Every structure is written in structure tokens, then in C-alpha cells.
Amino acid sequence: MKPFISSYAQNHFGVLIDAARIAPVAVTKYDKPFVVVMAVEEYERLKLLERNVLATGRKQKASP
């Protein structure tokens, strides 16, 4: 996961969202991960995986 310093992310938001469309991006604050920015498709995939796990009561392997 590529890290972005929060001030850079704020000043270069377009670069941040372009990177997040490719892969999740960690925004850091005081050298610690603070939030993750990701494409909506990735978020929806993770939510679907979570629902499937809760419905079946077992872990499933995430697809890439």
C-alpha cells in the first residue's frame, strides 16, 4: 500500500485519487497510517466478502 503524507494528499488530491483507483492508498499523519483511500469497486468487493463471511460463518479467500 502506497503511503501519502496528509499534507501532500491534501495539496495533490487528484494524484491521490488516481493512485487510489489503482490500489488502496494509506494517508499518514505524524508518520502513522491515519486513513485508507480506495476505489469504490474495491470497497464494494470487500463489503461483499464480509457479507459472505457473515452469512456462511466461515472465512473465504479474497479474490484479487
Give your account of this protein's structure:
The protein has 64 residues and is of the alpha+beta class. The chain has one domain: YefM-like fold (3-Layer(aba) Sandwich). Helices cover 52% and strands 23% of the residues. The chain has a three-stranded mixed β-sheet with strand order 1-2-3. A hairpin with a 2-residue loop joins strand 2 and strand 3. It is elongated and about 45 Å long. The protein starts with a strand and ends in an 8-residue tail after the last helix.
Short description:
It is built from three helices and three strands, in the order βααββα. It is an alpha+beta fold.
Entry keywords:
alpha+beta, 23% strand, 52% helix, 64 residues, 3-stranded mixed β-sheet, 3 strands, YefM-like fold
